[in-house]
């Protein structure tokens, strides 16, 4: 490790001065009301009590939502079941289904600004990202637009006759799976809602969606847009609540498929119970992704700032695909560390509705304590903490803020390199040879995504093929409506995005006709 790298970045001083702020005026200006459930075409007060949603930047209680529990879930699944088994939606013509989904695209575009503010009110995502980033209302509208376009292209195949003994003509149809339980995490509520609901509806399924108990506002708005559309009653339903409601939904015998995005621990629970009635599953889970920075990268500074930036700005490393292990060739290690530490100086904490704020707080006190305990374990295991890993004081002390941590001298066997921290912590691991870098990257129980910084296209493609992950970004990465996303190993099962989602939300039926009968 470098003895000469400038490791003097101390972002804390610029953060302590943030003025006191409250998120409640935004709540009031948006007219946010206590949440309800949306079941069978109606907003209803059902379920089993209420819980508070607390804002992570200030720990103010913003509003309350209904814990749907078993009784609320039952009502919603029964409504979705009726809409699927005897309603018009699954058998509707492609033209009619498109006619219903297309105005939803326009309605989401029109509400883009409000959706962005609600998402920031949910999880403290800085408003600039909530408005303009790859997780904005605009992207949700793009997703509905993309999947509305698939509706008249969801086709099966025909097959050549295989033997001379029977004159069979055979073909496949793609049919909807049935009732889909969609369960989403707190970190990108708008995007994950659209990634699941748009394709599920496009394929003719009916849906019961449960957002995270930590982020219900933006999804309630999206649900209201669907409520005001021409979707038949019961085709889309919203239940709110925490693990109890999630478990009631994911184990409900009336559900045919669970599409889940969240932590590996919960994903594994869902997988273990799905066998009872052979539910179909898509699991989009966590990661411990690696980015490999080679000496032939166009610019070490850009690579260092990108990687530290992904851990320190936007959602402060609380993104599944963030490369939290930077594997850096030893010849450029000093330069990389210098620029990564420099990047942290640009971090600005504060009111998430202020366009100058760059970074989000940690979603809950519990998760903040978890992040701080990982920092402690990294130090104890012998990694060197270049900066951060502590909390800013002053007016920020009441929120869940953690100063971005840059660890160097990290060994891939350390806990900070093996476990998903879900916070602002970047681990820098040096390497000498390409093959070593690939081996370190693949030495993980996760396999969500990977990054490569190199101008040698042959090397970049060779390494991309060798990485055991669901996706790889060469000099950049983003989720697109038409690109499959998902992971291998403990990062999940199945893909969501483009045609892969259509496959995931449909069943193939083979029909044979004897042409000699
Ligand atoms: P989480 O697993 O705690 O919660 C996700 C959802 O599951 C929430 O709606 C929650 O209420 C629900 N839930 C909790 N217990 C349940 C149970 N027993 N049965 C059914 N549902 C239950 O995850 P989180 O903290 O909201 O999100 C962070 C995690 O999500 C991280 O691990 C992150 O990597 C992952 N994530 C993955 C992707 C991806 O595309 N692969 C995207 C975003 C987040």
CATH superfamily of the largest domain: Aldehyde Dehydrogenase, Chain A, domain 1
Residues in helices, as a percent range: 25-40%
Count of individual helical segments: 18
Largest sheet, strands/sense/barrel: 7 strands, mixed
Distance between the termini: 78 Å
Which residues form runs of ≥5 with pLDDT under 50? 1-14
Kindly name the structural category.
Answer: alpha/beta
The CATH architecture term of the largest domain is 3-Layer(aba) Sandwich
State the shape: globular
State the domain count. 2
Fraction of residues in β-strands = 15-25%
Given this structure, which CATH class of the largest domain is correct? Alpha Beta
Rg from alpha-carbon coordinates: 24 Å
CATH fold topology of the largest domain: Aldehyde Dehydrogenase, Chain A, domain 1
Average pLDDT level: 95
| Number of DSSP E strands | 22
What is the topology, as strand order, of the major beta sheet? Answer: 14-15-16-13-12-18-19
> What small molecules does this complex bind?
nicotinamide-adenine-dinucleotide
Keywords:
517 residues, alpha/beta, Aldehyde Dehydrogenase, Chain A, domain 1, Aldehyde Dehydrogenase, Chain A, domain 2, 2 domains, 7-stranded mixed beta sheet, 6-stranded mixed beta sheet, 18 helices, globular, disordered N terminus, binds nicotinamide-adenine-dinucleotide
How would you portray this structure in words?
The chain is 37% helix and 20% strand. It is an alpha/beta fold. The protein has two domains: 24-285 and 491-511, 3-Layer(aba) Sandwich (Aldehyde Dehydrogenase, Chain A, domain 1); 289-483, Aldehyde Dehydrogenase, Chain A, domain 2 (3-Layer(aba) Sandwich), CATH 3.40.309. The strands form six sheets. Strands 14-15-16-13-12-18-19 form a seven-stranded mixed beta sheet, with helices on both faces. The longest helix has 17 residues, at 69-85. The chain is globular, with a radius of gyration of 24 Å. The termini are far apart. The site of nicotinamide-adenine-dinucleotide has 30 residues, from helix 10 and helix 11.
